[in-house]
Request: fold
Amino acid sequence: MQYLLPSAVFLLMVSVGMSLKLTEVIAHWRRMDWLAWTILIAATFIIPPALALLVANLFHLTLGETAGIFMVGVAPGAPLLTRNLARRGFDMQMAASYQVWAALMVPIMIPLLVWAGARLYGRYIWIPPGILLRQIILKQFLPLTVGIGLAWIAPKASQRSQSTLNILGNVLLTVMIVLVLFKMGPALEHITPLVPVAALITAIGSIAAILIFPFRQPRIKETFAICNANRHVGLALLLSGQYLHAQRALPAIACYAVLAPLTMFVYTRFYAARIGVVRTQSAGS
Reply:
């Protein structure tokens, strides 16, 4: 089971690299002003963990459950299904650029956020940025570079195989989640019933954290919103086990791993329906 998550992430990141156009990524970054960057930092790194802590305290979750929900909140940038996003009307290149940006920010923001969160509970936890940088390079930037290289060397073959890699990567992710839930079966029976509710609120709040702010283009806002709910559950699991040592953190993270995709699915359906209505109205006028 320890190889499933790295394998799934590797395949998905290679797939992202195959569809990534660096010129468009850089162009997206250049079009964003300081206000947009400030909003993105707040919505991606500040609001989700703050909301997680708020909900955990309102629901009187245990310290371990609070740690699990909080770690999901501080870890953005999970592998994205760029092809599916494009098919559903989202900006594929903007989604990929968001993921690259989030990965670059992780070694800076996560140590500070975890340190600040721990201090609220009278504890001292420091995650070395170098450890996070190594994780990001090996598990995200390396396969991303492989995908970009394959797309450059064999563009037609890469285009044909991207969908297969997406499917295979998501199958492995699904199998991993099922195995984790099965392994955690006894532990899940003893979690606070409000933990799934807290996970759901965190997922919905991550989407709302983007939607409440103004963006010049609605499609960019919608794309950022779906990306923001896609928190990096694998990174949250890794960091919780190595640095928090909270026994009940893993079931809480597992709850988010199950509920976040459902939340994203409902959101994409709502978005697709709204786009369809707008197009119909435009055609009618």
Summary: The first helix runs from residue 4 to 19. The chain has one domain: 4-284.
